[in-house]
Design brief:
Number of strands of chain B: 8
Shape of chain A: elongated
Order of helices and strands of chain B: HEHEHEEHHEHEHEHEHH
CATH superfamily of chain B: P-loop containing nucleotide triphosphate hydrolases
Number of domains of chain B: 1
CATH architecture of the largest domain in chain A: 2-Layer Sandwich
Structural class of chain A: alpha+beta
Oligomer: heterodimer
């Protein structure tokens, strides 16, 4: 599990984005968490709210909103779109752990249920994205 | 917004120098030289990291005999320390499974590892580049500013053609080039040195072809006893200067 490291990255990015946007006080940080990375959201949220924010006064009192996003793959060979529910057998513990750390390693363990190809795109639900921050003194819309 | 970019600077804050070992063509010994260079520096008392960026064909762990066990993790992931070298590779996660990644996915894997790897304090981080001038080379230029590139060449017009292109590109984007090294030298001639001279970059010397090298791979002790390693040790000394 590396939820703390991911939360640390979110906090640093939020502080940087707030400064760039001229926000004096962040009121909300909205984070999108992709299903593929299998983040333990309770641990992730605990890291965001209890461990990290006091490190920067910009984030004092800020709410952290964690939104989950389902994973969508699209096969480059047959064009089929599929999700984790279409994969049949669940990945083994080592495989799940590898994808947890590096989601791209889905290409080592996931195959298109339509044609068996490892050549697919991850359209959605990959990992952690800072969707947007809200606060006083400015606003920063999330990047797609 | 991708939060990983914000974390990378902190993760590398304790790294004093980054040297990328590249050379465009495959099979010219980049990974073996990168691993041996790391080992030579570590033997000399330097704090050294080795980052294998060949995500689709990682081999640094094979060269140093590191195995493929998962790294330990606490507030980030810790590189394996092998023969004094702190090492990170995608193979520690994928094991022996092939991971066919397209360019953008290799970029994502690089960012992920940069954002979570705890390199700590290093005198030098050696980056082992995959062949070509594709995404990973461009990502190193973009995300690891200040990285010095050391390019390998052999006395082959095919290899030299690609090294020439690499030197031109890196020069255009203003990347520091620490020099060119001739690898697998078998006989006389100064094709590689001549290329370096014509490009106006330092020629760092030659590493001889060593028929005994193959049997030493996977064992740092045996690797240290090869003629190849003697030459790499001298190369490490010149790079210190």
């Amino acid at each position: 599990m590396h939820e703390f490291a991911l939360a640390d990255a979110v906090v640093k990015a939020a502080v940087r984005a707030a400064r760039e946007a001229g926000i004096d006080r962040v009121e909300a940080v909205v984070v999108r968490v992709g299903e593929l990375q299998q983040i333990a959201t309770d641990l992730f949220e605990f890291s965001l709210t209890q461990v990290l924010p006091p490190s920067d006064p910009l984030l004092e009192g800020a709410r952290f909103v964690v939104e989950r996003e389902a994973v969508v793959f699209r096969c480059r060979v047959c064009g089929r779109e599929f999700g984790t529910g279409d994969l049949g057998e669940a990945p083994g513990a080592d495989e799940a752990e590898a994808v947890h750390f590096i989601p791209e390693l889905a290409h080592a363990f996931v195959r298109c249920p339509g044609c068996g190809s490892p050549d697919f795109d991850i359209l959605a639900g990959r990992g952690v994205t800072l969707e947007r921050i809200e606060g006083r003194g400015g606003d920063l819309p999330g990047s797609p | 917004m991708d939060p990983r970019a914000a974390a990378i600077e902190d993760r590398l804050a304790g790294v004093r120098r980054i040297v990328a070992v590249g050379g465009s063509k495959g099979g010219i010994g980049k990974s073996v030289v990168a691993a041996a260079l790391s080992l030579a520096w570590a033997d000399g008392g330097r704090r050294v990291g080795l980052f294998d960026l060949d995500f689709t064909s990682p081999t640094g762990h094979v060269i140093l005999g590191a195995g493929t066990r998962f790294p330990s993790e606490e507030f980030g992931i810790d590189p394996h320390v092998v023969a004094g070298v702190a090492m990170m590779s995608v193979a520690f996660f994928s094991g022996e499974a092939p991971a066919p990644l397209r360019g953008g996915e290799a970029t994502n894997a690089l960012l992920e590892l940069l954002a979570i790897t705890r390199w700590g304090n290093l005198d030098v981080l050696v980056v082992d580049l995959p062949p070509g001038l594709g995404d990973t080379t461009l990502d190193v230029v973009r995300f690891l500013p200040g990285t010095g590139f050391m390019l390998l060449g052999t006395a082959s017009i095919v290899v030299l053609e690609s090294v020439r292109r690499a030197l031109r590109l890196l020069g255009e984007v203003g990347v520091p080039i620490v020099g060119v090294v001739e690898n697998m030298r078998r006989d006389g001639g100064d094709l590689v040195e001549g290329l370096a001279r014509s490009a106006g970059v330092p020629f760092l010397g030659s590493v001889p072809y060593d028929a005994g090298l193959e049997s030493a791979l996977g064992n740092p002790g045996r690797l240290r006893r090869t003629g190849f390693f003697d030459a790499v040790r001298r190369l490490a000394g010149r790079l210190d200067g």
